């Protein structure tokens, strides 16, 4: 189980709030599920953007008591193209956060869509997950083999094993 304290809603940002390293939502005391997306958008400690709302629905469907959202890139942007213009799209603490949160987890869901290959992040994080998480799943893959982004998926989209 992930320990984040008793807060029902929260997020960890860099002091300048340029990078969001993690965001969590909790609705009961059962374990949280980790979902790794592409990059944070507008969601924060108290506001849910559409992707977070959709991920919460999937987590509830799977019987989890909450969601811990991590991302390949910690840079906050509303468009993937903005990542390519950022001086540091990954964020100085992002890999450490991903590693510490995913170690010894029984299940992690990857959901970063087609843009995860920028800076080789999809391969780096897939390698990290294969060495630390027992089970890595996704909501299916895109035509190019990337784990599908959850925003526009049907609510009953099944999870499948990720072999990234």
Describe the structure.
The chain has 164 residues and is an alpha/beta fold. It has one domain. It has 4 helices and 7 strands. The chain has helices spanning 50-61, 80-85, 94-102, 121-132; strands at 9-13, 20-26, 32-37, 66-71, 108-110, 136-138, 160-161. Strands 1-2-4-3-5-6-7 form a 7-stranded mixed sheet, sandwiched between helices. Strand 5 (108-110), helix 4 (121-132) and strand 6 form a beta-alpha-beta unit. Helix 3 packs parallel to helix 4 (121-132). The protein is globular and about 40 Å long. The protein starts with 8 loop residues before the first strand and ends with a strand.
The count of domains is 1
- Encode the helix/strand succession as letters: EEEHEHHEHEE
User: What level of helicity do the residues show?
Assistant: 10-25%
Gap from first CA to last CA: 24 Å
What composes the largest sheet? 7 strands, mixed
Uncertain runs: none
> What integer value in Å does the Rg equal?
14 Å
Structural class: alpha/beta
Tell me what portion of residues adopts beta-strand conformation: 15-25%
Protein name: DUF1643 domain-containing protein
InterPro entries: DUF1643
């Amino acid at each position: 189980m992930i320990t984040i304290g008793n807060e029902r809603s929260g997020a960890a940002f860099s002091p300048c709030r340029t990078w969001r390293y993690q965001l969590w939502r909790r609705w009961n005391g059962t374990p949280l599920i980790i979902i790794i997306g592409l990059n944070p958008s507008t969601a924060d400690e108290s506001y849910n953007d559409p992707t977070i709302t959709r991920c919460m629905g999937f987590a509830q469907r799977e019987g989890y008591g909450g969601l811990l959202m991590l991302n390949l890139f910690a840079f906050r942007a509303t468009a993937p193209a903005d990542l390519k213009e950022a001086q540091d799209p990954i964020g100085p603490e992002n890999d450490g956060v991903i590693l510490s949160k995913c170690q010894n987890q029984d299940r992690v869901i990857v959901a970063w869509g087609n843009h995860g290959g920028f800076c080789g992040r999809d391969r780096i994080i897939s390698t990290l997950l294969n060495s630390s998480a027992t089970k890595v799943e996704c909501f299916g893959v895109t035509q190019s083999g990337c784990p599908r982004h959850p925003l526009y998926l049907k609510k009953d989209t099944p999870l499948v094993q990720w072999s990234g």
